[in-house]
Amino acid sequence: MIIIGEKLNSSIPSTLQGLNEKNEDFITDLARRQGEAGARYLDLNTGMCGDEKEMLVWAAGLALKAAPGCALMADSTSPGALRYLFENVELENAAINSVTLEEDRLSGVLPLVREFKTAIVGMPIDGDGIPKTAERRVENARKLIAILRENGSADQDIYIDIVVEAAATGWDAPQKALEAAQALRGEFPDVHLLVGLSNVSFGLPRRGVINETFLACAMARGVDAAIMDITNPSMKLHLRAAEMLFGQDEYCMEYLNAYRETEQ
After folding, report:
1. For position 160, which CATH number holds?
2. Pterin-binding domain: which residues (predicted)?
């Protein structure tokens, strides 16, 4: 499982406060803990800050220094802010989050993907918004993958977000996302399938239980990347248990290591 740390996001009140106050210790600690817990990418979103592009540059420098084993996933809807980041911070193996089928998003983001040779998160959303059926999600994802391939992206650099919505507002929405994931995995074996895990439990009690359960369901349908809170010991343990049961953890070593961490 490719783990993308979710904590450096300005939609989280404590993170927004830390960003706005330019609290170096807070941002550094968030990045370090996610890296130490096993994140491959750090998702960084400063969209709710006063000056998004300057904050992106400031926070990216701190985060990558604190977690040198991680790459950056630049999470922004502003092509200008993304360009400013890539022109001012030296980034290796970076990703952009995200692009959709909407023309303004495509025209703004695709040149950056080409120029800076980044991985890209694609959301199968068109002008009508989030598709309401699994079939429409697959159709939109198919179109988006074709565009990204034509733009020069290799399948291994494409991350298709299955766009799971909150179960609280649509009881069958998670199942539709899972159906789409299964179909896409069969058709595109080398494209990554991504889930923003915290979305599924929004508005419900015991969110951790829902997130952990959905993660296992998604992995069973072929999802291989998740934006998640890997610093949560219970979440990490459930992830390692699922990897073990799916034959992805030789000799159960990662599960045992995660278990020992919860016992400390």
Report:
1. 3.20.20.20
2. 1-246
Domain shared by 211 and 222, yes or no: yes
**Is the separation of the CB atoms in 162 and 180 below 8 Å?**
yes
pLDDT digits (tens, 9 = 90+) for 146-166: 999 999 999 999 999 999 999
Residues of the chain with pLDDT under 50: none
Q: How many domains does the chain have?
A: 2
DSSP assignment string, 107-159: HHHHHHHHHHT-EEEE---BTTBS-SSHHHHHHHHHHHHHHHHHTT--GGGEE
Q: 254 lies in which domain range?
A: 233-264
